[in-house]
């Protein structure tokens, strides 16, 4: 009886162990895949949507963000996301100002919250380097607790501790960081009060060189094109302030500065300000610099259409073909440049004239037919708040939006480049006040027909569907009760690439095995004493091919028949697996 009891206990122990083992492994065996999705980061937490607007997963703020003391001394439970990025294969990252500044990581396939990592103070920018599998975070302040301005995280191990990078040239290093796989071993850092570009050695994590920016106080907003390996960035300058000066306001007070540009240019110091206070002023004559990262030379500078204002923020299409200058002109134009060869200046394509007051919604017009006027724009200020590129084999469309207006503008970039076709679309017909809030955001769900536009003021999200050309655009769905936030399109491109490769191999092998066993193989099987073994090898090979095909088919179905597909969000999913886009704006 004692022996029987021991046998029963042993059996139960085995069953219990197996059950626990199965519970721990089920995550991998039955791991649900979200597939292509739109992530929304707001004060309420993180919500993950299908491209057509159906909710796939939610992380409420009480689960994701811990209470913290604000600068005003009030306790807050709201999340405070400022930067976000996807690495395209493992995690979705979000930098948070809530409490101790940190970076949160979410599983790219399931949306599960993987954890957080403390980072440098005021993380304002994030860029991923796929060749190194590293996420770079640009911070705006160095403190005793976080003595660094660039932090680095490995997507291979969230617990790895990579020392922060500190150049030590400024107390508050507000700036931007350009990271791209085409830059080789380097990245490039800019700061608003540093008159040079810092070249960062990604291996040593040290400054390799600096390049003086002519006549500038510093550099800020930046973008990069892999087409010509050029860096584009906004130059920040100094200007005079006061009565009959470059700018009327002296901000927190005038200082003695050296003005190197504009009508107040002088070799003698004068009352003035430097940096953002001079943007859009008559001293903002440099505009955007174009820098060759291969030959380490400044190529040229670009400004906006003559007579409309001064200065612009540069942005680029995901493939780097198009460079946009979002101007300080009160909402009149958007300048389009085209990247050329390395070392050569980008060429001016056109100044897009966007009109939100004339024309007919949904009707195709040409740029020359329309006078630009973003409703609610202020002269000298940037009105275009965001953009999205739709780049596919059969179309190349630019979508522009402004927080001051309820219209978005769609431009066909493949139409006559001196007279481009465009359409305006009313997001909220009958609503006179802008729903944009402080800054209207746009994001294309890559590979689909959907472009998301937020309406933070009215707590709405507008989902535009563009099944064909720009004239087919319409507001397909409006989501309500959505807290103002920021959007990021996410997909596991590495998984899609693997699935495509396996499917290609299985098809090739199936085609070969489908011709039947070769004559030589048959003869060998008949004449050799090991015919049975050879037959087993052949059968095993066919089985392996079949298994590979099944795996590839499963991966393929998980991307094209994701939850969003079931909701109707992926019925025309046309993602190009060769693309390196990690969103509708970012390329790694």
Largest sheet: 5 strands, antiparallel
> Beta fraction of the residues?
35-45%
Shape: globular
Poorly predicted runs? 11-17, 356-372, 517-522, 524-529, 551-581
What is the mean predicted local confidence, pLDDT? 83
Strand order of the largest sheet: 28-32-31-30-29
Briefly note the structural class of the backbone. alpha+beta
Ends: how far apart? 68 Å
Tally of separate helices: 6
Number of distinct beta strands: 37
Rg over CA atoms, rounded to whole Å, is 28 Å
Helical content band: 10-25%
Provide the descriptors you would attach to this structure in a database record.
588 residues, alpha+beta, 5-stranded antiparallel β-sheet, 4-stranded antiparallel β-sheet, 6 helices, 16% helix, 36% strand
Short description:
With 588 residues, this protein is an alpha+beta fold. Helices cover 16% and strands 36% of the residues.
What does this structure look like?
The termini are far apart. By secondary structure, this protein is an alpha+beta fold. Mean pLDDT is 83; it is low at 11-17, 356-372, 517-522, 524-529 and 551-581. Helix 3 runs antiparallel to helix 5 (531-560) and helix 4 (519-527) crosses helix 5 (531-560).
